[in-house]
């Protein structure tokens, strides 16, 4: 089985247990930290493209807010899709 090749002799059940042990706060912190990295990238690219740090900061700020909102709705949509979920 593929999971045995990846995980050695561990069963599917032990894999599920190990991936479900993350606390929700960890997911929130990971999402925010990733968004910060993405916003810094947008800031640097915008600054390079415009040559104006003030303009780049405005772009990065808008990017941060809009992508957090989009991410929320993206997650809610995926939550409604049953494909790939364990029942």
What is the fold's blueprint, element by element?
Blueprint: H1 2-7, H2 12-19, H3 24-50, H4 53-80
Helix pairs in contact: 3-4
Protein name: Membrane protein
Pfam families: DUF2061
Region (Disordered): 1-23
Summarize the structure.
Residues 13-23 have a biased composition (Basic and acidic residues). The protein has helices spanning 2-7, 12-19, 24-50, 53-80.
Characterise this structure.
The structure is a single chain. By secondary structure, the chain is mostly helical. It has one domain. It has four helices and no strands. The protein has helices spanning 2-7, 12-19, 24-50, 53-80. The two termini are 21 Å apart. This is Membrane protein. Residues 28-79 form the DUF2061 domain. It comes from Wenyingzhuangia heitensis. Residues 13-23 have a biased composition (Basic and acidic residues).
Note the main attributes of this structure:
87 residues, mainly alpha, elongated, Membrane protein, DUF2061_membrane
């Amino acid at each position: 089985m593929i999971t045995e090749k990846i995980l050695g002799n561990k069963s599917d059940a032990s894999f599920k247990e190990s991936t479900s042990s993350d606390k929700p706060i960890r997911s929130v912190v990971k999402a925010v930290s990733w968004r910060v990295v993405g916003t810094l990238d947008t800031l640097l690219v915008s600054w390079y493209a415009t040559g104006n740090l003030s303009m780049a900061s405005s772009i990065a700020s808008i990017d941060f807010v809009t992508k957090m909102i989009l991410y929320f709705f993206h997650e809610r949509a995926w939550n409604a899709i049953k494909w790939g979920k364990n029942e």
